[in-house]
Amino acid sequence: MPRTTKTITFSLPPEMAERLDQAMQGQGRSRSEFLREAVVRYIEECEWRQLLRYGEDRARDRGIGPEDVADLVEEYRAEAGRSQA
Fold first, then answer.
1. DSSP H helical segments within the chain, as ranges?
2. What is the band of 63 on the pLDDT scale with cuts at 50, 70, 90?
């Protein structure tokens, strides 16, 4: 049966490795579990930042500023409420 995971090796400074071990032991998890979740969270955060940057760029291109957000949200909610009715 083929492996469903890929082994990756990397190094950490001793202090960071110690902090990692303490954190994972405190949660009763293996290093692999702990690091998988950390990587997933980091990737999701990067994707979220990219999406925010995209939205900010599009808003700027359309002349939409922070002061316009409340009105746009209210307008969207009103339209969404009408379409559900």
1. 14-27, 31-61, 69-84
2. very high
- Regarding pTM above 0.90, the answer is no
Per residue in 31-57, pLDDT tens? 999 999 999 999 999 999 999 999 999
CB 68 within 8 A of CB 76: no
Q: Which residues of 43-62 are buried (b: 16+ CB within 10 A; e: fewer)?
A: eeeeeeeeeeeeeeeeeeee
Instruction: State the CB neighbour count (10 A cutoff) for residue 64.
Output: 15
Tokens standing for residue 28:
């009763």
**CA atoms of 36 and 50, how far apart (whole Å):** 21
What is the Cα–Cα distance from 41 to 38, expressed in whole angstroms?
5
Q: Tell the residue number behind the tokens 């579990």, with chain if given.
A: 33
